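Researcher: Here's a chain I'd like modeled. Treat it as a single chain, no partners, no ligands.
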Amino acid sequence: IEHFRGSSLFDELAREVCTAECVPRKEFYESWEVARRVHKTFKYGSTRVVDLAAGHGLLSYMLLLLDSNNTRTALCVDTNMPWSAVKLHQVLTARWPQLAPRHRYVTGSMEDLVSNEPSLLVSVHACGGLTDLVLSLAINASSPVAIVPCCHTRVSRFLGDGRVLTRSRFVDRLGLADGIDAHRESILKEYGYQVMTELIPMEITAKNRLIMASPRIEVLGESKTSLRDIWPRPRLPPSPWSRFKTSPVSILEETEQQ
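Model: Modeled as a single isolated chain. Structure tokens:
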């Protein structure tokens, strides 16, 4: 805490996260670098943030706090909610009560999520093919998206037919990690997205490529039936809430009753 004695939002947030004692220092700096870049890029766009493979959910809280108008809401989605997410919820909503009604954490499969155009999809270090799933959800909904990929594997779900990416011209020219991300960017551009790439400082994380993309205005009105499926998957439920039952509030209530 003694390293964060300033009055800025960064310092104040850092002190609260230190108090929670549940987030590694690397992940705090990593989340902040992503949040401030994403906020700057999409400041006047989507009012709902969907943090996929959210883990402790710190990124979503940062994006809410950076919104000075208090109009942004956040939904965190992961297969399981770690107790670090519950602890952060307790600490951050105690300091900033306005966060509580604007933030929700739910558990379930990302493949059950139904996104819509106003939602900004974000994900930091969703392992391997999970990053491709995030991009597929964004494309199918014409939603803006921001990702920091990691755990690059040789088979990309974006190819759909199981082809090995080492045969891709991007991988041949750039290597596995850079080639896969270049291939992802080319797919986004194929679907009419404007793509911007920034690098987080290497001293914070080695997997430091931040890919941000937004659909062009003329693409938003295009029928979804004209967009080919990235890969086969089951029919999605009508509501993103249909399979999601758990939230920090319900877990806290259950804990207090025990």
